[in-house]
Design a protein that fits this description.
metal-binding; Cerebellin_Synaptic_Org; Jelly Rolls; alpha+beta; signal; binds 2-acetamido-2-deoxy-beta-D-glucopyranose; 13 strands; metal ion binding; secreted; five-stranded antiparallel β-sheet; 2 helices
Amino acid sequence: MKTPGAVLLLLWLGLLAGAAESEDIDLLKLKYLRAQVQDFESRLQASEKKTRDLQNEIKNLKENGGKKVVFSVSLEKDALYEHTGPFEIGKTLVYKQLFINIGDAFNSSTGFFTAPVRGVYDFSFSVLGYGGSARVGAHLRRNGQNLVMAYATLDRGDINASNGVSVLLEKGDKVDVYLPAEHRILDNYHHHSTFRGHLLFQM
Ligand SMILES: *[C@@H]1O[C@H](CO)[C@@H](O)[C@H](O)[C@H]1NC(C)=O
Ligand SMILES: *[C@@H]1O[C@H](CO)[C@@H](O)[C@H](O)[C@H]1NC(C)=O
């Protein structure tokens, strides 16, 4: 298959050399041409098969592999100075400022991210504490289970804490940032307390 032209040429030369004088040269030419056409035909069929395979692969990628998921949010929209907490019972943070939400996997009315496909996702979040003493922190959770925590103790002034995780999620898994009981964070129009995530790749 690699050098069919050369092989055919040798074949033709062989036929030519072995040809009896009585045999018609035109007939040999015809045989050579026929072999060449057969060779072209088989190469064309192989290339058509390759094209079909590629088209199927592209279709698959479009349907399953090209998923784009990214969100980026901040707790407050245009507040000057807004504490969240401390509460007696912990609660999921509901982020008000949406920077981006491609794939609509982040629900801004609940604060929950729902994995649209099985895959590896990357999340990070940060919290700011400001003014007076407080416990500053939040958990990043999967399906209500703590994964990682950002935490700091505030004496005075301000402090921030952040964390992140890469994790395999099943389709439908829910991720949120949870403010534990008796913790307090702050955000304002500068956007200190943020949450972001994206799909790295499907599995
Ligand atoms: C967000 O969650 C609420 C409450 O579960 C639901 O009613 C709403 O349809 C969701 N929004 C989107 C865009 O999925
Ligand atoms: C908050 O985090 C930023 C970097 O993200 C850092 O530059 C700053 O010093 C931190 N502030 C406090 C009070 O920890």
